[in-house]
């Protein structure tokens, strides 16, 4: 506590509220990002399955997921816009000096955001208005625009971690900007692919978790089975891939940001044969309490041999490295992320084993209980990943070039605290509205499915979302109940 007090006393009064506001908005917005990046792909994949196999259940799932995707995108506009404004309002020192160097990433993200909005509108209103395959092909660019948005954001963030593509003049201002180098920094590749796969995993496990809960509550129809299988399979396939991508990203940090790596692994002094601590707390004198100590493992993980030298926090002055408290936060975030990832690999292997043996889902309540929790666990790992990335870079906002305290606004601290309170109220309201809308849609869909079953139609399988709506003719009521895909013109055939 004394270390924290001393640290705060030596920083501008605006720094703490600015950091708190940025942390809150980023932590809130990042919960929506997996669905913005990956839900379009999962929806288009389900849509393709529906058209390829003439499967009305898959078609209905794709249509309903597209509605959720649109609502999520609308909420993301609000949270993303606030986050973008905060860069200029809270950190004018960084944007004023370095905006010309790394600002293109934000521009790419803005264009991707615009294109995605147009494509979502076309896709959403194309149901019942376009020919099936025409409608699907118009949706194919959606996942690409989502990946393009992630490209822009990660390009900007990776530049903050490993800045390059410029020279400094005599006043310390960047000149001779090389845009290509500023985008494709040493951390861009490892960070981008690790991030994108994490988004796909998270969206897949969250969507599958919704249907896993339905299965646990006794809804064992094909609608819930297919709604679980497709996104869960996507996530399960990517889980072992993510293990290697995460290891590659951590090793890139070891080589390019050694002090951040020291914080991730709470390494105090530069040494060889460095042990690995699973959890544990770093103290100001370099001692570590708690946790599980595994001799030499950190050196082995970093360089594949026990003699690998690992840079410690004390390799740089105290003013140029994370505090012991910050290092402990980073270390815990990194270990939580790695632990959850390891458990998800076991879940994916369980799923693969059962599917290989029986070509069917594991009919086991324990499996579906774990699957229902996997989505929430992935959201936690997403938060932990950004904590590792951002807190581990402290005290730098631009690594080794500008401190956070140098970039912060000169606005009175009281005004920033007030703005933080307004933002919290806004975000709570927005997220409450989002959940209310999604739950309302779920209730309406469930009532529609139960009504279809009561009329003799086989649950949701009869609602074909292609072709123009038409009012049922009284004499055709019986035929409409069991007509399947033949009840609408322009159906998926």
Description of the molecule:
It comes from Streptomyces triticiradicis. Belongs to the cytochrome ubiquinol oxidase subunit 1 family. InterPro entries: Cyt-d_ubiquinol_oxidase_su_1 (IPR002585). It is a multi-pass membrane protein. This protein has about 500 residues and is mainly alpha-helical. The chain has a domain of about 120 residues. The protein contains 18 helices and 8 strands. A two-stranded antiparallel sheet has the order 1-2. α2 runs antiparallel to α4, α3 runs antiparallel to α7 and α8 crosses α10. The longest helix has about 40 residues. The protein is globular.
Secondary-structure blueprint:
Blueprint: H1 2-9, H2 15-29, H3 33-53, H4 56-90, H5 92-102, H6 104-126, H7 132-139, H8 141-161, E1 167-168, E2 174-175, H9 179-183, H10 188-216, H11 222-256, H12 258-264, E3 276-278, E4 281-282, E5 288-289, E6 292-294, H13 297-303, H14 324-358, H15 365-391, E7 396-398, E8 402-403, H16 404-407, H17 413-454, H18 477-482
Antiparallel strand pairs: 1-2, 3-6, 4-5, 7-8
Helix pairs in contact: 2-4, 2-17, 3-4, 3-7, 3-8, 3-10, 4-5, 4-6, 4-17, 6-7, 6-8, 8-10, 10-11, 10-15, 11-12, 11-14, 12-14, 14-15
Biased composition (Gly residues): 480-493
Organism: Streptomyces triticiradicis
Main location: membrane
């Amino acid at each position: 506590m004394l270390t924290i007090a001393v640290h705060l006393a030596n920083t501008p009064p605006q720094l703490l509220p600015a950091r708190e506001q940025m942390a809150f908005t980023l932590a809130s917005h990042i919960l929506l990002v997996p669905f913005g990046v990956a839900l379009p792909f999962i929806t288009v994949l389900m849509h393709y399955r529906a058209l390829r196999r003439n499967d009305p259940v898959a078609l209905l799932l794709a249509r309903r997921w597209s509605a959720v995707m649109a609502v999520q995108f609308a909420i993301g506009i609000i949270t993303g816009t606030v986050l973008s404004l905060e860069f200029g309002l809270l950190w004018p020192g960084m944007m004023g000096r370095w905006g010309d160097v790394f600002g293109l990433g934000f521009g790419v993200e803005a264009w991707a955001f615009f294109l995605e909005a147009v494509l979502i509108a076309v896709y959403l209103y194309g149901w019942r208005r376009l020919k099936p395959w025409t409608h699907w092909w118009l949706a194919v660019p959606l996942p690409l625009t989502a990946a393009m948005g992630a490209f822009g954001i990660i390009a900007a963030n990776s530049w903050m971690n490993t800045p390059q593509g410029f020279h400094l003049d005599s006043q310390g201002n960047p000149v001779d900007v090389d845009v290509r180098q500023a985008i494709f920094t040493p951390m861009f590749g490892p960070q981008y692919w690790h991030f994108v796969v994490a988004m796909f995993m998270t969206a897949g496990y969250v969507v599958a978790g919704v249907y896993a809960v339905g299965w646990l509550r006794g809804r064992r129809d094909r609608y819930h089975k297919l709604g679980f299988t497709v996104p869960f399979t996507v996530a399960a396939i990517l889980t072992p891939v993510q293990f290697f991508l995460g290891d590659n990203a951590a090793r890139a940090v070891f080589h390019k940001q050694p002090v951040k790596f020291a914080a991730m692994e709470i390494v105090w002094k530069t040494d060889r044969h460095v042990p690995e601590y699973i959890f544990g707390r770093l103290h100001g004198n370099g001692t570590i309490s708690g946790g599980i100590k595994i001799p030499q493992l950190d050196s082995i993980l970093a360089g594949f041999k026990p003699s690998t030298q690992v840079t410690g926090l004390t390799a740089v002055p105290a003013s140029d490295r994370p505090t012991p408290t910050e290092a402990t936060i980073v270390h815990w975030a990194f270990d939580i992320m790695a632990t959850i990832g390891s458990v998800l690999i076991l879940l994916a292997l369980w799923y693969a084993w059962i599917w290989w043996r029986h070509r069917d889902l594991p009919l086991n309540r324990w499996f579906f209980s774990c699957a229902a929790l996997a989505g929430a666990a992935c959201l936690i790992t997403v938060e932990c990943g950004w904590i590792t990335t951002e807190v581990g870079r402290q005290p730098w906002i631009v690594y080794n070039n500008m401190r956070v305290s140098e970039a912060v606004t000169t606005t009175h601290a009281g005004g920033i605290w007030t703005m933080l309170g307004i933002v919290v109220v806004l975000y709570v309201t927005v997220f409450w509205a989002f959940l209310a809308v999604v739950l309302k849609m779920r209730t309406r869909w469930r009532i529609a499915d139960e009504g279809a079953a009561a009329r003799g139609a086989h649950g949701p399988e009869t609602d074909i979302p292609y072709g123009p709506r038409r009012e049922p003719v009284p004499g055709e009521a019986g035929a409409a109940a069991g007509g399947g895909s033949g009840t609408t013109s322009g159906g998926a055939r």
